[in-house]
Amino acid sequence: MSVSDEVMEEWIPLLTDIVFDKDTFPMKKKLLMAFDITKQLTDESKAFEALHWFNNTIRNKNTPDDLPNIKAFSLIEAIILMKNCSKTEAKRLISDGAVRVNLVKADKDCFVKFGEVIQIGKRHFAKIGV
Q1: What percent of the chain lies above the pLDDT cut of 70?
Q2: How far, in whole angstroms, is CA 114 from its chain's centroid?
Q3: pTM for the full model?
């Protein structure tokens, strides 16, 4: 989560009704704050889905179950479709090591095939398909 601990301490009383002990870990506070805000904006079941997705995908580093299918013939094209970025940005993501194909770091010469899973960073996933 990209909210600093100091900012989170300011946001909790403004955005939620949650009261924490001083001994509560910052990560637990962030998770509960995110859950409560999501519940306020949608409903409790959607908040549980979001919490499950975060724990499963971000914390446990698993691939999500519901991957979008994209039609791409090259890795660069797949990245451009997934991130809506330029060709130069796509190449930079590959050279920085932010792109994985089937959980293996991709290089500039990597080819993609039908059914392969592309991951960019921690949060962007897609499957090569029709």
Answers
A1: 98
A2: 23
A3: 0.70
